[in-house]
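Protocol step 4 of 5: obtain the predicted structure for the target chain.
Materials: sequence only (see below). No template structures provided, no constraints applied. The aim of this step is simply to have a reference model before the mutagenesis design in step 5. Sequence pasted as it appears in the construct record:
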Amino acid sequence: MTTPYDVADHLRTPQEMAAYLEACIEESNGDPAFITKALGDIARAKGMTQVAKDAGLSRESLYKALSGDHSPGFDTILRVMHALGLSFHAVPSYKKV
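Step 4 output (structure tokens):
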């Protein structure tokens, strides 16, 4: 019998988590739900209870915000990113012509 693949089981280090989020951002084609779900995967890997506590959210609110079914506020995303030990970085974007 096989078990469903869960990426959260493979995100063990901060470097792996950052690389996963970066890859998801690149592959998202601007889909905020895709990126939000990736943050949810990382939060599950770190432990939702601890991430919720560190972000100042209830565990239920965190699950709801990162489900991909809702659009969390940017303040929530920033709090979750901080709780995960991740940060945003801006780099120039060059459009392909």
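Step 4 remarks: The longest helix spans residues 32-46. The chain is about 55% helix and 0% strand.
Proceed to step 5.
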